[in-house]
Design goal:
251 residues, alpha/beta, 8 helices
């Protein structure tokens, strides 16, 4: 790939890269020319690494446990000590589905720890050298629940609203220094996280019927947005939540 959308010579760090959206984004960035650092709770992302290599990129696997935000700064420091990261994709996330009255504080914190706190701490760690160089791309995976309330996912919704605010706040600070901070807000995508919804015939049909595209998305549907936000094509795009939802929010 050449021109505005080429990522040749760039290194992208993708969290939660073992499967689903993270795997698709890692492979898509490699197809655009990037080399990948694949992060997961344990460094066993062999399937994704193989797909990245087949797409023409190099793939390094690293263990990064985002469920322990207090450990993220030191872990990120070790990761960045010998690597230049040009693009950070904060994809890792967790969701818990239960009525709000059943959500205890540890359960609330478990979602916020990964989806918000760890994402901020990793962004701060990767952003500092980007700011020093005057160039970099931060992409965080938000959600339709950055705009809506959802059902029985209060902690997840709170975290994704916060991700939207964090994206805009960091864009205000970092855009003047050549670092673009944006987010992708996926619609209803067929992944492990949405399997419970797709397993309910009535709920699945209600969701699909509202999507103008007439189908659930698949992880590959998000690749174009990620390549755009990671490349020079988006150098004047900052603080934006790029919705990829088949038209859901327009309905």
């Amino acid at each position: 790939m050449t021109g505005l959308f080429s990522l040749k010579g760039r290194t992208a760090l993708v969290t939660g890269a073992r499967r689903g959206i993270g795997q698709a984004l890692a492979v898509g960035l490699a197809q655009a020319g990037a080399d990948l650092v694949l992060a997961g709770r344990t460094a066993d992302l062999h399937e994704t690494a193989s797909l990245v290599q087949q797409a023409g990129g190099s793939a390094e696997q690293v263990a990064l446990d985002l469920a322990d935000p207090a450990a993220v700064p030191a872990a990120a420091g070790r990761l960045l000590a010998g690597r230049r990261v040009d693009v950070l994709v904060n994809n890792a996330g967790v969701i818990r589905r239960e009525p709000a009255t059943g959500v205890d504080y540890p359960g609330w914190r478990a979602v916020l720890d990964v989806n918000l706190d760890a994402a901020f701490l990793l962004t701060r760690a990767c952003g500092a050298p980007m700011l020093a160089r005057g160039q970099g791309k931060i992409i965080t995976v938000a959600s339709l629940l950055s705009f809506q309330g959802g059902i029985n996912v209060v902690a997840y919704t709170a975290s994704k609203h916060a991700v939207a605010g964090m994206t805009r706040a960091l864009a205000n600070e970092w855009a003047p220094h050549g670092v673009q901070v944006n987010a992708i807000a996926p619609g209803y995508i067929a992944t492990d996280n949405t399997r419970p919804l797709r397993a309910e015939p009535g709920r699945e049909a209600a969701i699909r019927d509202r999507i103008p595209a007439g189908r659930w998305g698949v992880p590959a549907d998000l690749v174009g947005a990620a390549v755009f936000l990671a490349s020079a094509a988006s150098d004047y795009v900052s603080g934006h939540l790029l919705v990829v939802d088949g038209g859901w929010l327009a309905r």
